[in-house]
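If your schedule permits, I should be very grateful for your opinion on a structural question. Kindly check, if you would, that the fold set down in the tokens agrees with what the sequence suggests. Thank you for your consideration; the sequence and its tokens are set out here:
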Amino acid sequence: AALRGLAAEAHAAGTIPTTALKARFAKDALVPGVSGADPQTDAEGPAGQPPVDTEAVRSQTAALAAGTEAFLVAEGFTPVQRSRRVAIAPGAIGLPDVRGEEHPDGVVLEEASTGSVELTQAVTAFYDAVHAWDPSTLSVGAAQQLLLGPATGAAGAVVLRDAPKAEGGRIRAFAVSYTPERQDAPADVLVGWDPELGQEDALQAVADLLALLVAQYPVQLEVDEAMAPLERIVDGLIGGNAARTLVDTYVFVDDTTGA
């Protein structure tokens, strides 16, 4: 009640756009390892550290989540979004043909600067599209600062186009890599696509880009329920034991005032 009162005061003062309260918590969690999709390797722990008891971690997380969810439901919160951090094994997806002399109609993969205006605009459009459930209308400047700037750890980016940029090709999908917290952890990647693409075109673009990303090495990425094409691919990989969930989180919201 006290927190709701503070939110109402801040909203009345124009400090925040809504009085809705949100809570995010993990229902399941594993400790990320170097193998991407091999739970046995994860259990060995980082070099120089004792083995990680993944079952104990999962049990503790589940117990905390049960209590958190019960409290939130009793307070009138409802679930609005599921978000997972997933590790994908190398070679998990068949490689597409890359454009060249042998494949003139193949996909076009190009490196992109994280400071590129074109990439920043693509990231902004994607972010706004997949956060329609919690709209914020992210500006290009904010996207650069929060998702692509030096402080984020963004280390590089690639884009998938329908034709080379020199020929006016548009970005169909993109991937931004971030420096992982552990050197032996899979690369941390943000994968997105042009929200103007149809579902099947977006699905194909994401599948092609992911296949190229994991051709030799594992990656870890975040997938929300709102990211339908990516979620569809990830669910298929998990079902085929080519990927696994590292952290499974839920977002609950309380908007009892309707403001």
User: Anything to note?
Assistant: Residues 49 and 58 are 19 Å apart (CA to CA). The radius of gyration is 20 Å. Residues 2-86 form one domain.
